[in-house]
């Protein structure tokens, strides 16, 4: 009897422990389900926010991708053109005259009367005609067909953003103006082609003439300067810190400071650049070179941290193998470790660059939010950048800039998505399993 | 006890290649190697055996100054190869490592082609004047590594694509490509299956014609099979160093006996 008892208790205990597990199992599974539920809810929330963001950008921004144009038959009157200096001529009168053909009742020789009609057109219309004549002086004396942009208000009307059923006193356009537009529309000369101005022109006070060329070129130069400075410097610093620097208190302090630098608000870098590059070195204001330098300061810590992580991820067995056949420390790093770390370094660099592309605050402080109507021809010219252009447009009162701001944000996002896609591609393409 | 084949373990008349005198190794405050004295002979396979953490790998890594790369590691005493102090200030570890090749526990080919794996050492040491010479060196090394026949048709395919045993033999070929005089092997078969192990062991026996081979192993059978001399390490001390046959049949120290009979370790 006494011999059997311990066995019995043993089997009892084992049975009860299975029982216990079974009892707790339901609770554990429930907990896991709840956690998973929260996770799915969080992802769903994040995704819906993204959809709302992009959706609202697209719905506000898409009208900016077309621009209302008016097609005119213009007689290039030799009497109105100064043959000595082609850029000086009464091109606006020629435009007005051709527009008058559709309005026989209006006396186009009267400034005030004609103004009622010509306000349909952008003030850039005459410049467009001038540029055509300048490019080809043989057009003088001919009648040419030219498509000129409509002014912003009529563009808004055509896109339905200025509503006809709004009471006249609350509308930006009075009934007469709308009637004039409808006359042109009935004549079939109104069209809304793709708004190439958005990419091919620099900034303008008039929304229908404003484009992102200056900002795109400015951002390009700034990023180029940023890359040329931060990439070699960042990799050099990371290699030294990771592979060669003695591990002591000083290198610890440097490491902590680099990590802190990555967390410094970007506006602080802007103030630093303002004090050092502009006031002390006397570099040109609003220039992409200064923007690039400022962005390089910000990107450096990102690149250093990414590079160090990538170098650290190269397994020690590769270093040992190279050391074992008699490679020097420097050969180990440059022949083996660095090439293997390169995909990680490039990924980090591209992400740092994408961050720099979207950075606004430091550029505002060094004056890259100036109003500049031509694209820079080099890094020393005044320019804006994409995010500062968005900032300027968002601040502009004209109705046309509302959609153009969203359109510019979409352009910026496209670039960012493109850069991140490259980073993801590099990561997956060159990912190595050890 | 162990089936020690005769003949293989016979000690030829040899001269001393490596002399270690009063070697102490410290990792920070830990005294990892205590007063080790040993003489390693050329054209001999010397096995270091002992329980985990006894310092056999640490001592092995002193011979090509691999421990230099560890910041907190400090080596004292005197290690000489052919009478030259390898810890002398004038000795460049790079030069030393070209003379003392090393094969590691886990096969670690470079993620490059088989050819480049073997050619890398000779290239950085400037051992070949032209492509033809380099080709010769690579072929000779791969033949010595007993892997030439298996890879001669795919020298440009990546070394990491080979099987574990082939990778290890490629690493041996890489180590012998720089014409070393001593070959250190740190548990070269611990990541290999029995068949690959047998191939590598056979190779080790062939390599002894040209080099002084020092092998660290966890497997006493392996030590008995491939080595002529065996050193038993315990807790940082070199307990016993003698002919392999003697160590495995008639050890002098009681700790050695306990280890090889499986009572400690």
TrEMBL record, chain A:
Q: Where are the transmembrane segments?
A: 34-58, 220-241, 261-283, 289-311, 332-354, 407-426
Gene source species: Marivita lacus
Q: How does it sit in the membrane?
A: Multi-pass membrane protein
List UniProt keywords, sorted A-Z.
Answer: Cell membrane, Membrane, Transmembrane, Transmembrane helix, Transport
What is this protein's name? Phosphate transport system permease protein PstA
The record, for Gene3D superfamilies, names: MetI-like
Under Pfam families, the record lists: BPD_transp_1, DUF3333
Q: Which family does it belong to?
A: Belongs to the binding-protein-dependent transport system permease family. CysTW subfamily.
CDD domains this protein is in?
TM_PBP2
Query: Which residue numbers delimit the ABC transmembrane type-1 domain?
Result: 216-423
Membrane among the record's keywords? yes
The places in or outside the cell where this protein is found are: Cell inner membrane; Cell membrane
